[in-house]
Amino acid sequence: MQGSDEHQPLLSENLRQKGVPFLTTWRSAFNSKDFWFAYGEDISLMYKHINVKLCTPFCMTLLFLSFFIWKYQIYDILYLEDGFYLVMMTVLFITSYIAYIRTMCTDPGYLPFYYPAHPEKQTYSKEEMRAGHGGKLEQIVWARRQERPGRCVFSKGAGYFVLRGDHFCVWISNWIAIKNHRYFYIFILTASIYLDMVFVDAIQLFCRYRELHSMYFHIFTIFTSFAFGALITFQLYQQTFLIAKNILTLEMMKENHKDYDRGCLNNCEEVCGPKKYMLFWIFPCFTIKSPVDPFTIPELGGPNISLEEVYEYRQRKEDGTLDEMFNLPNERKENPFVV
């Protein structure tokens, strides 16, 4: 079959019996293995799991631009002899850029919309994921009525279930979830430091050498560095608090807080990986798997939680055996929390 041929996957008997309406028609794009078109309510251009949007290349352009403005218009005037400052800012920029790319390109923890039809299956092929892109109304309605693991949401925008989905980030056209949350935190940490320092340098350049550039240059540099620096710094503050308390952004926004707090370090371990690899948490080049199995996270809130389960959770928290509750083998409860 040629790369541009249309794929019309057929429902298996098992999926039909579970009420799955139909699978998604798709075809490869540009004779590429990674680009493809999904036929939902609209035709979506996808790159692997990413719904391609214009904001992503726009943000990457601004990120590149910020480094060249700082290096060739600010550093060369203010800090030409300070080699350490150049190295520090370059390392911050490269680290933030790598973290940005990994956040965007890493599968955050997607599952096809028909996952609840056979929840024992946890891995899917590329073709199964494409056929499982839920972009039509019947698929979305069916998926939202099904049971799923705790803290798992169905995203209409992505067309997939998302394991431990924190929020959808429009700047990267991807969900922040169990598999890329750490990369996202590294990105906002390094980018906030970098952009805040660019803003301070831009103010200093304007005060001391305003005649070297036009007023338009100073306004552009100061405004963009302040706007993006303030935005990402606020995001850093918010994410630090939420990770430390083990609260998802969606839970905070919908005031649907659930008591998953297992202590600050254990909460960080859930996002960043085992504590024994703590020294590598800050490096986006390393892939570190979360010790928490997202398929067995218990549901600790909402109408489906019983008083006995609440008591068990609180008792385990007091006894220090809460980790065992996050690895129960067949714990699958309905979660009405959807996006």
What would the keywords be for this entry?
3-stranded antiparallel β-sheet, alpha+beta, transmembrane helix, 5-stranded antiparallel β-sheet, 10 strands, single chain, 339 residues
Please characterize this protein's 3D structure:
With 339 residues, this protein is α+β, with helices and mostly antiparallel strands. It has a domain at 55-106 and 179-297. Helix content is 46%, strand content 9%. The chain contains eleven helices and ten strands. It has helices at residues 13-17, 55-78, 83-105, 126-131, 137-144, 181-209, 215-245, 249-253, 264-272, 307-319, 322-325; strands at residues 6-7, 26-28, 35-39, 43-47, 50-51, 110-111, 153-155, 160-162, 167-169, 174-176. The strands form three sheets. Strands 1-2-3-4-5 form a five-stranded antiparallel sheet, with no helix packed on it. The protein has a three-stranded antiparallel sheet with strand order 6-8-7, with helices on one face. The protein has a two-stranded antiparallel ribbon with strand order 9-10. Helix 2 runs antiparallel to helix 3 (83-105), helix 2 (55-78) crosses helix 6 and helix 3 (83-105) runs antiparallel to helix 6. The longest helix is centred in the last third of the chain and has 31 residues, at 215-245. The two termini are 36 Å apart.
